[in-house]
Amino acid sequence: MDPRPYSHVIEKLRAAGLRPTRQRIALAKLLFEGGDRHVTAESLHAEAQEASIRVSLATVYNTLHQFTSAELLREIVVDSQRCYFDTNTTDHHHFFFEGSNRLEDIPGDDVVLSKLPAPPHGKTVKRVDVVVRLEE
Amino acid sequence: MDPRPYSHVIEKLRAAGLRPTRQRIALAKLLFEGGDRHVTAESLHAEAQEASIRVSLATVYNTLHQFTSAELLREIVVDSQRCYFDTNTTDHHHFFFEGSNRLEDIPGDDVVLSKLPAPPHGKTVKRVDVVVRLEE
DNA sequence: GTGATTGCAAATCTTTTGCACTAAA
DNA sequence: TTTAGTGCAAAAGATTTGCAATCAC
User: Fold this and answer.
1) What is the domain-level CATH number for residue B13?
2) The model's pTM
3) How high is the pLDDT of residue B34?
4) CB distance from B132 to chain A under 8 Å?
């Protein structure tokens, strides 16, 4: 077996200034080695359990927020009942399937905003989020 | 005093198929007689208390959802911790002031989406929400 | 009167926190 | 060894629910 099976992930964590603990490494592997993903704290915790990774839900919450601060993840607001996190941190938008509460990326330039208002005086635009809400 | 001081609001409720109870009339007056407004259940409840209207918080929640189903209000998702309701049910978008958690309407055509992706097969677009997130 | 609506308190659900314990450096 | 990170259980905050009391019609 590869003597340094987690080196990628460990580097990523170090680069972000996060100490590579067992839990962070395991969660980072789940998050970043499966392409672009959308997770909630609950869903990631369940996934970790299935993979026999022992992590508490509190640590999952903490970790998701730390990763978000470190810009390894992006938080997406589509539902006022739950937080979603996206492993795709590039500029893009989302489809949201009401009913199944599922999120899907909309590739970067499939949405074009050709006109935007100027921000109110003294304010800066942090981000523009476009959510296309779908129903059956 | 006007013998039918609430007639407007009462008509509005009846038209929406909602029985005009004391609480609904009072909340509808607060909501619809002050121009375009953004409220949370908590803020509307506080406002009602100040106006000496006796309504429980549970009833405020129920009423906001009934009004939303009846399309007298629109629910806006900008924060995964709280529900916001908007008395402006026309097509428009929002500024969200992170920090003060305040919402402001962006007039209809100050945002132009010149390109949108086709919805996935079998799905219908229910709404497209644009949120411009601001910071100081 | 009768069924819809309300209030209250308890329940639920997601998320955060305090603190003793453990592990990384 | 020193400090950051973790787990657990408890707390917090938003929202919902069950049910008896009340109100609109």
Assistant:
1) 1.10.10.10
2) 0.91
3) 85
4) yes
